[in-house]
Amino acid sequence: MAGATIDRPGSPPVVDVDVDSRRYLAAGDAFAEAAGVLNAVHGQLLDLVILTLADGHHVGPGLHTPGQYVAWKTGMAKATANRLVRIAKRADELPCVTEALRAGEISLDQADAVAGMCPARYERSATELAKVATVEQLRAALAGYRDRPTKEDRAHEHGVSVRRDEHGATVTARLGNDEADLFEQALDAMREDLYRQRRADAEAAGSESEPEPPTSGEALVALAETALAAGEAAHPGADRYLVGYHLHLGPDGHLSLTDDRGRRVDDADRRRILCDCAGEAVFHSADGVPLSVGRKTRAVGRKLRRA
């Protein structure tokens, strides 16, 4: 009588543990090899960025930062390009970090974490830690490496300042590296959106010439306008999303527009602002005390706006 093997119902399939282990180990080795090659390539790019900063190759029409140049030449995201630039700027201070990146022993993100958070005197130990820690673990540990901030350091903490003169205003912002990457990406995206809109307007008007590319200043203003418009749409009637001006008769009997700080708006800007605005009439007593506020009305009504 011939023998037969009958599997019990529900019994698990037979698995060759040795084969699975070998495949798992082989896959891990392949990951390590590919990651090492990628890290070493980033090390080569780092050397090119160091050369670029030294020779000033990144300066040119439409190029405002080294990160823009690196992103243009490599096709990588602006945030990744900025990581390379940050490490390159500290290459002389962090020889252990740069050598480990060139050798493929640490990744670009690990090298950037050390370059962004670690004082130069601790870079050797930080580099050794980077070889065995994840990026998140490394950042958490490096937080304790930072020097205690001085008064001068606090003066350079996060903040935005606006300085005005007779020609306009200068806006200065102090941000963290990741926040600066976010800001640059938003600015670039808005600049591209403005250019596409200008090109669409030119095509609709039958123009064959390429429109003038928007400046970074125009993109920054468009970002602010977009944020306020989104807030006003989400919370209709909220005055905090509006910029306030005061329209009144000047000493010479002509209309004068001033901002909340009493600064006079020039005539060209006054005409542009009053073309499309919302206004409220404020009634004052003879000595200038506000008595009542009228209804808010728009220079361009809702029906005409929809049309």
- How much is the radius of gyration in Å? 30 Å
| DSSP helix fraction | 40-55%
Taking pLDDT < 50 over at least 5 consecutive residues as the criterion, the unreliable ranges are 1-7
CATH topology of the largest domain: Arc Repressor Mutant, subunit A
Tell me the span between the first and last alpha carbons: 94 Å
Which structural class is indicated by helix and strand composition?
mainly alpha
Secondary structure tally, helices = 12
How do the helices and strands follow one another from N- to C-terminus?
Answer: HHHHHHHHEEHHEEHEEEEH
Mean pLDDT: 82
CATH architecture of the largest domain: Orthogonal Bundle
Strand order of the largest sheet: 1-2
Biggest sheet character: 2 strands, antiparallel
For the record, the count of structural domains works out to 3
How much β-strand is present in the residues?
A: 5-15%
Shape: elongated
CATH class of the largest domain: Mainly Alpha
Could you characterize what this model shows?
- The chain starts with 16 loop residues before the first helix and ends with a helix.
- It is mainly alpha-helical.
- It contains twelve helices and eight strands.
- The strands form four sheets. The chain has a two-stranded antiparallel ribbon. Strands 3-4 form a two-stranded antiparallel ribbon.
- The chain has three domains: 119 residues, Arc Repressor Mutant, subunit A (Orthogonal Bundle), CATH 1.10.10; 81 residues, no CATH class; 66 residues, no CATH class.
